[in-house]
Fold this protein.
Amino acid sequence: MLSREDMLRELELLPVWQLRNPTPVEKVPAPLQPQVPSQQKVAPTAVVTEPSQLDALATTAPQFRYVVSQDAQWGFVLPLTHDEAAETLLQNMLKAVSVTVGQNIADANNDHLTQHPTQLIVAMGEQQAQTVLSCGETLAQLRGKTHNLNNVVVIATYAPSDLLVNVQDKVGAW
């Protein structure tokens, strides 16, 4: 039987991967008591009435970050966040799968996916997966399956920032 270190070395995850101290399990808060509806009036939300505003909203494509590997085989669709811890985790994940970044497009949209074609796209995060695949399914429904986008395989997984919040999901992402 292989030891943990031997298995990680066999999977080429060493020396990048290292075990961290497990976080304590948080207690589940007690269920909330039902609230009695108040008699307060709620202010109406803003309504778009001008046609030019509606056109601008309809044509605005969701933005994301698109990272393409140096050999143009991998593409990663990521949220537009500037979190150092999430960036470090992403870099470690890329090292673990031996991916060197070739291009890093900050404000990308679906057009960039066709302009910079890859063999595999990894959509990291629910909103990014929904945007790339043009669907409304949850990340739980999209994960664990391969999807097709213009003859390119798309895989949906957790965003690095989500993995930092929900450490138990790291196992599924690796």
The first strand starts at residue 64 and ends at 69. The CA atoms of residues 38 and 57 lie 34 Å apart.
